[in-house]
Design brief:
The first copy, chain A, is an alpha/beta fold and about 625 residues long. Chain A is built from 21 helices and 28 strands. Chain A has four domains: about 70 residues, GMP Synthetase, Chain A, domain 3 (2-Layer Sandwich); about 70 residues, GMP Synthetase, Chain A, domain 3 (2-Layer Sandwich), CATH 3.30.300; about 270 residues, Ribonuclease Z/Hydroxyacylglutathione hydrolase-like (Metallo-beta-lactamase, Chain A, 4-Layer Sandwich); about 180 residues, Rossmann fold (3-Layer(aba) Sandwich). Chain A starts with a helix and ends with a strand. Chains A, B: GO terms for molecular function: DNA binding; RNA binding; RNA endonuclease activity; RNA exonuclease activity; zinc ion binding.
Chain lengths: ~625, ~625
């Protein structure tokens, strides 16, 4: 059936199901959802069940939009909005988008704008015609979030075209008589870095992740030139499990190559992705390397990004439905569930995941309506790769901080901007608040503060305890006074030139670049200071050299190479990883409901992937296999 | 390096290596070979070593052609040719092709035209300028061979363009830094029928076989629509292991889809392929089905076919060399050896093969300069799939024939036109000649006689004993007087209406169509007659029903359906198969030199492929795997 026919068919069905006297003017696909235009938005707003029932009956996501003719002028509308919402909601900004009939309302307490079951929103619609969309006023101002929202507004016309075209492709209908599902590994199999997989059926092709291996020049990019991926417009959509560069760092390259399809990810993943991509370009330029793409390609990707919240079942291809679930790895990280065909097959791609509740996140989800195949990460898949518990890690860190501060020393913690930094921040804030460690300043340098701002923008993506703390107790740990963002060269110089007991969290995590180097140069020679590693240090990085015990460390700066004498203490605190350790990996599968039939391992060195696959096979009597780059396996 | 540069570079190198005073006018790629044009063909002809040494030094196939300016007019030339060759050579035809400067000489004894080490040929070149090419005068006239030769002559201009373009693509040079080799199964894995595999590297993609599953409407074609094969012009070349429809039946479809690349196969495979493709169209039309392609597509394929003899090492892509070896399965069947990269990997694709010397062919080759991976057929891969020896089978057949003829009965043998028919013919001829069975007529109906004519055209593809019999003893069994081709409806009617003791070999092999039905209808009710199966009868065929013991067999003809009463004897003679039995499959790998590292099984039902893979693994401690359709495995 041609899309036009599908649409007119849907319109007829909707009209049949509407209460008497309710009319619609047109229907159109927009990305994965069906937009219903009406001249009577009030009637729809009156009855919250209409849309819910329609969505259920038609098995698709539906939004109702006012026909542009019934919209109240913006200047009048904003008055009505402010009249309707309670003052405590703290509306801080708004923006009218006539193309979609939407008004974006930025509020400190979005819940109050939404109202119980969306009551207040419906009231607004009834009064002004516009469809209100509520976003949170970030408690910490994030340049990234601000820029992205601004960018989306500026490009709303392009975006509307993109969404319409994506929507029509999703609803193009199935044509093949064959039924099969296969998975091709283009990167990240028996290795870490450049994760990239393709799920394909006779109807469609979905790319999952498109990472860059920043640690390797030879094997930097996935095998994107093979026929399964090239030319790139054969791909229907890109699905991103989370925002780390080894999972999304080359997405802008796809657009540089002419990709025109959508990216699906969670809202935090979109924002963190943009932040990390722009930083990647920056770092490459600073290292004198030619970045593989430009900021224009990053923006092109953003324009094509469709965000989905956890648990939203969404059509992303004629025969594929995607649902994200919490993965517990970093903010917005998602276990991705693909339902293929009409009950033909269900495959779960874990992405990186933590199967344990942490300070920031709930444990990764492993309950699904159905699942036959699982593709899972294996970073700590090796049988000896158990990690200390989080409590042990916290205690360990507290002790190190205490003993260093007792000597009036400085604690320097190299950390990645996204993920471990925020975990360590919460641990430190908690310890300071409870008086376990002294109330010293915790300096945050590099991109850590910006990444934290993004975390603060999306509290609904943090775990229950943290959310309660923020919303019910009004106590946002990220806003604690102990945190001091290093937002100028002057402040950094002051910290270095006037050393005082403090904790410094700074990028980069493996000490191969970033402001951490400045601090290290300044503090390495004093034996009262301590360098604390909370993350993995890869071969060839400065961090690894220090761990190996180098005592004299050559460093090159603008002014030439000189040698740093290494006197400060070096400590390693394991257990803060965002990855499941071996036990958790095994448990995740063992306790998965329903029990899967087959498990494929990836994202780990060769030994870890093979060891995990073989252990799961032995323990659970499931078919397992360690995936191999450039190989294709058949699920059905 | 651009092709033009490569060519001028090659020209320089050739000029450096030529003896003093020998000049060349130009060089050009033509398919896989390098053509050197000279105004002094006599000098090259004088010294047979020049070309041999050049080919060795440049590691490519070289032919020397006279510059058109030095060619003697054809009418004079033919006189010189007849003067030069001995009368006994029996020159029966000739054809001058000014585009390539060649004269095709058809002779009864090509060896005499060629002379010792090519002496006579060189003498001819010296005298007339033209390059002589010698083909055998077919001892039995084959319409197919004749038509193909005529077609190639008529289309020599197109062919020259095709060969030039293919040649330039082969020599386009390598560009990728990556090194990998992978194999994708598009058909024929864990099944028999629609064999189709792709070997790919970063530089090139080779399709091996492209068969049709004539027995299945649902799974008739390989998965040609997947990105590894579609669009089809990403494929560099198609390599055919042999001429059976399940290995080449859909090749014309590739040309219908716009394929422009070459087909590589042996000369007999080309001729048998054309015969079987045209028959396939014919049969489909007769059954009221729409054939998937037309005879124009068959011709397009022929135009793009480049024939290679056994043991000729040939560049077919910038990084792939192909060598065919005898496979012992049917006339021209080839074990295909691919040398990939500069020593990177060697993979042997067996195609269908018989690892035992038969009446017609030598045992399949399993010695190679190097081999790491083997992709092998598994028709009789199951552990209980042993077959009687050929001697037993022969004796068995002789006994059945004798006992039937004793009762004045008729022996009816349904058989495939290509392969088993000729084997059975030789067995019967031998038995008649030696007086083991009475000298009765052996009627050949259907395409058997035409296929036999093609066998007779290529005695160099038969085994040593048979070649000796034909060339040294002048005793060609195919020409024996006992064979009576049924070349008219009248003769067939006569055989039916005036029954007399005889043997009838007729297509089709599974009795689902063809003249065998006519004979069956006529002879089934007489209990003195015998029906002898020498080949496999698939489910759903008339042959299988008879084997199951049906006593009343409904047959539909133009005049409606009627029932044949089944009184004739039914016998099954196993052991004439062109496939290796289980023991031979195991031995083929065990005795392979050098020892391969990995073995992949295909071309067998699921159980046979898995059983064989697992047995080879256990017996030889090699990595093995049964391939799966739509999966890709990595060899390097």
């Amino acid at each position: 059936m041609a899309v036009e026919e599908v649409l007119s068919d849907l319109k007829k069905k909707i009209e049949e199901k509407l209460p008497n006297g309710t009319t619609i003017s047109s229907v159109e696909f927009e990305g994965p959802q069906l937009v219903v235009y009406t001249e009577e938005p009030k009637k729809f707003a009156d009855n919250g069940n209409i849309v819910r029932n329609l969505a259920k009956a038609l098995r698709t996501r539906i939004v109702v939009r006012p026909d542009p003719r019934v919209l109240m002028p913006p200047e009048e509308s904003i008055g009505k909005i402010l009249e309707t919402v309670p003052d405590e909601s703290g509306v801080s900004n708004h923006h009218f988008d006539p193309d979609v009939g939407e008004v974006i309302i930025e509020a400190e307490k979005p819940g109050l704008v939404i109202g119980k079951h969306g009551e207040t929103l419906r009231e607004i619609t009834k009064k002004i015609g516009w469809t209100p969309k509520v976003v949170r006023t970030p408690p910490i101002k994030s340049r990234t979030v601000q820029n992205i929202r601004e960018f989306m507004r500026t490009n709303h016309k392009d975006r509307k075209d993109i969404l319409k075209s994506v929507g029509r492709k999703i609803h193009r209908g199935c044509t093949s008589k064959d039924e099969w599902v296969r998975v091709t590994s283009l990167g990240g199999a028996k290795e870490v870095g450049r994760s990239c997989f393709i799920i394909s059926t006779p109807e469609s092709r979905i790319m999952i992740d498109c990472g860059v291996n920043v640690g390797s020049d030879d094997n930097m990019t996935p095998y994107l030139y093979v026929p399964e991926a090239y030319p790139i417009n054969q791909i229907d959509a890109v699905v991103l499990t989370h925002a780390h560069l080894d999972h999304q760092g080359l997405v802008p390259l796809l657009y540089k190559y002419g990709f025109e399809g959508p990216i699906y990810c969670t809202p935090p993943t979109r924002d963190l992705m943009a932040l990390l991509q722009l930083d990647y370009i920056d770092v490459a330029a600073k290292e004198g390397k030619r970045p593989p793409y430009s900021s224009a390609d990053v923006r092109e990707g953003l324009k094509h990004t469709i965000v989905l919240d956890y648990e939203e079942v969404t059509d992303i291809a004629p025969d594929i439905k995607l649902t994200f679930h919490n993965a517990g790895h970093i903010l917005g990280s998602a276990v991705s569930h693909f339902h293929i065909g009409d009950g033909l097959h269900n495959v779960v791609v874990t992405g990186d995941f933590k199967y344990e509740k942490t300070r920031l996140f709930d444990a990764a989800v492993n309950r699904f309506p159905r699942v036959e195949s699982v593709i899972m990460e294996s970073t700590y898949g090796n049988s000896n790769a158990t990690q200390p518990s989080l409590q042990e890690a916290e205690k360990n860190l507290q002790n190190i901080v205490n003993s260093t501060l007792k000597k009036d020393g400085i604690v320097l913690i190299p950390a990645f901007a996204v993920g471990r930094s925020q975990e360590v921040m919460i641990v430190l804030e908690d310890a300071i608040r409870k008086g376990i460690i002294p109330n010293v300043p915790v300096y945050l340098d590099g991109m850590i503060w910006e990444a934290t701002a993004i975390h603060a923008t999306y509290p609904e993506y943090l775990n229950n305890d943290l959310r309660k703390l923020i919303f019910q107790k009004g106590q946002n740990p990220f806003l604690s006074e102990c945190f001091k963002p290093v937002d100028s060269n002057e402040l950094r110089q002051k910290i270095i030139e006037e050393p005082h007991p403090c904790v410094i969290l700074s990028t980069s995590g493996m000490m191969n670049a970033g402001p951490v180097i400045e601090y290290f140069k300044a503090f390495a020679e004093n034996e009262n200071n301590t360098l604390v590693f909370v993350g993995y240090q890869a071969d060839g990085t400065l961090g690894r050299r220090i761990q190996k015990g180098w005592k004299e460390i050559p460093l090159s700066t603008n002014k030439g190479t000189f040698v740093v004498k290494m006197n400060m203490n070096v400590e390693v605190v394991d257990g803060f990883s965002g990855h499941s350790d071996r036990r958790q990996l095994m448990d995740y599968i063992k306790k998965m409901k329903p029990r899967p039939e087959r498990v494929y391992t990836e994202h780990g060195d060769e030994r870890s992937c093979i060891d995990l696959a073989s252990s799961i096979h032995k323990r659970n009597k499931m078919e397992t296999k360690a995936l191999t780059n450039l190989e294709t396996v058949r699920l059905v």
